[in-house]
Design goal:
Radius of gyration: 26 Å
Structural class: alpha/beta
Helix content: 40-55%
Largest sheet: 11 strands, mixed
CATH architecture of the largest domain: 3-Layer(aba) Sandwich
CATH class of the largest domain: Alpha Beta
Low-confidence stretches: none
Strand order of the largest sheet: 1-9-18-17-16-15-14-13-10-11-12
Shape: elongated
Distance between the termini: 26 Å
């Protein structure tokens, strides 16, 4: 369960459980539905002037929310509100039927033509638990709504986006604003769902916070609230040897840049000492471009073991620029047998394609893997797109016994014990060569300072995203370590 319940994300089933727990505590379903619809109406009124509006209602509780929204807007007096329903109002049940009976306006059939000329379209068609492709008139109406020159608002999550995976189901509504309730769902943060949601507003509808203790959610949005308690902050009595010593393994003479980027990031995040270990031909290249970072060389496996044996070196990064070779594989297996915490990235993962069991069986301590989708597929044999990024990363972490940091615009971090976080602060400017090497350097720097792997991976991801946002357009990887100090000052406030 997330240490900070404020950052918890609820799956579809967990949200159903929260609703049920609230009703068990004496909050009626009608009260919850009224509060949800009222929250959406308030969000609309706060943001936009009155304009011709249509509320698209589905046959379930989402549609019931829509009837409340239409009524609440109509009660303001200045809003021209129409309501269109999938199917017949006679087929509505429970709380949705009650809210339909409280609506005193006409109920039109759902058609694509109904959205024409409307300045605001509210999507109250389907909730986050929809599991089938959208077809027929609903499909065509959503497509027409997306083409319309109108403001678009989604209730809970845009129809056609699954709340757990963020995957699209046939088509999906594209919102400018999504109003969800109690807590966000993974689908609000995972692509393509994130791009469909627009601004996401979380409304309090009266579900007691205590229900989260009963539900014990395992997924969280990656925010400082999740890991700030363990983030390393130097004290007055600290010295460099108490702040960890990270070892970054460099590639050969033509592949040294990745290691230098990672090493500088490890220093910037607070690591006391960083050493770049290079093959002999690369040592002069690295030494000429590094000042605070120390350099050392190794010629063979025996030489690498000698460097690794220095006891103060308590975290090691392997992979960036190392080459897909037997030598890389041997160094990874050696490092995993050592007491040092390990970060495996890039070539250190690819070199085990088809040999995942060999790698996984060697993990017996702190280890973090940082694959992108391609590296993940080569190592684990399945694409994250096949069953959803959260489930895939969670299963992979359990299988390998390491924290898996599955990189991307919606990076997912999964621990072997089932904890998952989704990072949401990374700007698109980070899609640039070398930024992943900076991320792996941040991870190894935090591990060296004693931060446990899941927290270290989450913190590194967030700092990486915040640094990228601070630099902004024109970002190159070399900019990121220099942007870290202001982020650290922010974290210490």
């Amino acid at each position: 369960m997330p240490k900070s319940l404020s950052s918890a994300l609820l799956t579809v089933d967990e949200m159903y459980a929260a609703d049920a727990a609230a009703m068990g505590a004496g909050v009626s379903g009608i009260t919850l539905m009224e509060a949800a619809g009222a929250a959406v109406a308030r969000a609309i009124i706060r943001r936009w002037a009155p304009r011709p509006t249509i509320v698209l209602c589905g046959p379930g509780n989402n549609g019931g929310d829509g009837f409340v929204i239409a009524r609440r807007l109509q009660e303001v007096g200045a809003w021209d509100v129409q309501l269109a329903l999938v199917g017949s109002a006679d087929h509505l049940k429970g709380d949705a039927r009650y809210m339909a009976e409280a609506w005193n306006g006409p109920v039109m059939p759902l058609t694509p033509a109904g959205v024409e000329g409307r300045g605001l379209i509210v999507d109250a068609l389907f909730g986050a638990g929809l599991s089938r492709d959208i077809e027929g008139v609903v499909h065509d109406t959503i497509e027409a709504a997306n083409r319309a020159r109108a403001v678009r608002v989604a209730v809970d999550i845009p129809s056609g986006i699954h709340g757990d995976t963020g995957q699209a189901l046939g088509t999906h509504f594209r919102a400018d604003l999504s109003v969800t309730f109690f807590r966000k769902k993974p689908g609000h943060l995972l692509f393509p769902g994130r791009s469909a949601c627009g601004e996401v507003n979380v409304a309090d509808i009266g579900i007691p916070e205590s229900t989260l203790m009963e539900i014990a959610p395992q997924i969280a949005e990656n925010t400082p609230a999740l890991w700030r308690h363990s983030f390393p902050v130097p004290t007055a009595i600290d010295h460099k040897y108490r702040r960890g010593h990270a070892l970054v393994v460099s590639g050969a003479v033509g592949s040294t840049g990745a290691a230098r980027l990672a090493a500088r990031a490890a220093l910037r995040i607070g690591c006391g000492l960083v050493t770049v270990a290079s093959p002999p031909d690369a040592l002069p290249v690295n030494a000429a471009q590094l000042t605070t970072v120390m350099t050392e060389s190794f010629e063979d496996q025996e030489g690498f073991e000698r460097i690794l044996a220095a006891r103060r070196r308590n975290a090691v990064l392997l992979g960036p620029g190392n080459g897909v070779t037997d030598a890389t594989r041997a160094r990874v297996l050696t490092a995993l047998r050592d007491d040092a915490a390990c970060v495996l990235d890039a070539d250190a993962l690819t070199v085990f394609e088809g040999r995942g069991a060999e790698l996984f069986g060697s993990i017996n301590g702190w280890c973090i893997m940082t694959p992108h989708d391609g590296e993940f597929t080569r190592l684990f044999g399945e694409s994250p797109a096949e069953q959803g990024k959260v489930s895939t990363a969670k299963d992979a972490a359990r299988e390998c016994g390491a924290v898996v940091l599955l990189k991307g615009a919606d990076t997912v971090i999964a621990a072997p014990d089932g904890r998952v976080s989704i990072n949401s602060n990374a700007p698109p400017d980070l899609a640039s060569a070398g930024t992943g090497d900076v991320l792996s350097g941040l991870v190894v720097g935090l591990l060296a300072q004693g931060m446990e792997p899941f927290d270290a991976a989450c913190a590194a991801c967030w700092v990486h995203g915040a640094s990228g946002a601070l630099v902004g357009p024109g970002l190159i990887a070399e900019d990121l370590p220099e942007a870290i100090p202001p982020i650290l000052r922010q974290l210490r406030r």
